[in-house]
Specification:
The complex is a heterodimer of chains A (119) and B (228).
Chain A (H helix, E strand, L loop, with lengths): L1 H5 L1 H19 L3 H22 L23 H32 L13
Helix pairs in contact in A: 2-3, 3-4
Chain B lengths: L1 H20 L10 H14 L4 H9 L1 H21 L16 H23 L8 H18 L7 H26 L21 H25 L4
Helix pairs in contact in B: 2-3, 3-4, 4-8, 5-6, 5-8, 6-8, 7-8
Classes of the chains: A mainly alpha (119), B mainly alpha (228).
Chain lengths: 119, 228
């Protein structure tokens, strides 16, 4: 229980990733699949930030001069996640637009009913 | 059957996840690169926000690539959702008085807030991407409040390509003056003040305008598509 509590952020990130993957694998509604992709994306982002955490650390910004550099968490995962969030938004928008087009052409969001896509 | 296979697969992934992370205890000390950035960040870039100094100075080339990815995504969305046969507009319900009045009051304030976020990117949490997202949300509010609202696409693509070109131009100026692409060639100024950190605020303003225009274009594409 203690180990679970001290690794709470890893557990949460892992849960988000697994839930997202499960939705992608099992659901056949395309909107739900996109929700799964985005959950997976969020989980990976949380995981990256959690890996960069340092006990007792604060955001790596010198908001006042009295802050010592040793009090900061790792800034690099934060910068990478900043990138990843923006890319995630781009992927989400592109996926949604493809789904809009699919719905216009086939009249359904169910992957099983769209010919040429089999799962 | 499919669920069963999926659960087994996820079990393998979870196990791998567990073994990989059991070597990295949560809250462990940072690595050498991070230490270097934190200790030398202010002196080398002039930016108080270390995340910003990593994003727009040490790894600005990555950021240029990232902006390009976002551009390609919005381009793809525009190509897919290009409203070919307009005019079959289904009748939308009119937004309520509260939404319309609220949008009228909030729209300029949201734009101001977004601009504040990306202008102060080197001093406070925030930056070009966040400010751009806030600006795009202002246009989403306009779409929700007014039935026949339409972006002026030409102006938006002008802002977008202009700010993208400004980013590359600043990089090339760095190459000409300081010897390498995206060199921070302007004086660093006094840290903790608005006019500091050399090219970082310029780049972040360009990124903010570009991301704001792109995301607003994405919002417009999704809102104006017929079945959307």
């Amino acid at each position: 229980m203690e180990a679970l509590y001290s690794n709470m952020y890893y557990v949460g990130a892992g849960a988000l990733i697994l839930v997202g993957l499960y939705i992608i694998l099992v659901k056949s509604n395309l909107i739900k699949v996109i929700i799964g992709i985005h959950l997976l994306d969020t989980g990976v982002n949380v995981l990256l930030v959690a890996v960069g955490y340092i006990k007792g650390g604060t955001a790596p910004i010198f908001t006042r001069t009295s802050l010592a550099p040793t009090q900061f968490v790792d800034p690099i995962p934060q910068a990478l996640v900043l990138t990843a969030i923006v890319i995630g938004v781009g992927v989400l928008a592109l996926a949604l637009s493809i789904v809009v087009k699919l719905y216009e052409n086939y009249g359904t969001l169910d992957v099983r009913k769209i010919k040429g896509l089999k799962w | 059957m499919r669920k069963f296979v999926s659960v087994i697969l996820l079990g393998f992934i979870a196990a791998g996840f567990f073994f990989a992370l059991s070597d990295i205890p949560f809250g462990d000390d940072r690595m050498g690169v991070a230490k270097y950035y934190i200790e030398n960040g202010i002196a080398q870039t002039g930016a108080v926000n270390i995340v910003t100094s990593v994003v727009v100075n040490y790894r600005a080339l990555d950021t240029l690539g990232e902006v390009t990815v976002l551009f390609v995504a919005s381009l793809g969305l525009g190509a897919l959702l290009y409203p070919g046969n307009r005019g079959v507009d289904e009748e939308k319900q009119r937004a309520s008085l509260i939404v319309r009045t609220g949008a009228r009051i909030l729209f300029p304030l949201i734009l101001l807030f977004g601009a504040y976020i990306f202008v102060h990117g080197h001093l406070t949490p925030g930056g070009g991407f966040q400010g751009g997202a806030v600006i795009a949300s202002a246009f989403l509010l306009q779409y929700l409040a007014h039935r026949h609202y339409q972006l002026d696409r030409r102006q938006f693509s002008l802002v977008e390509s202009g700010s993208g070109a400004a980013f590359v131009l600043v990089g090339l100026l760095g190459l000409a003056v300081g010897g390498y692409f995206l060199n921070n060639f302007i004086g660093k100024g006094v840290p903790y003040s608005l006019f500091s950190a050399g090219v970082i605020p310029i780049l972040y303003v360009a990124i903010g305008l570009k991301v704001g225009a792109e995301l607003a274009g994405i919002v417009a594409g999704l809102m104006e598509s017929r079945s959307g």
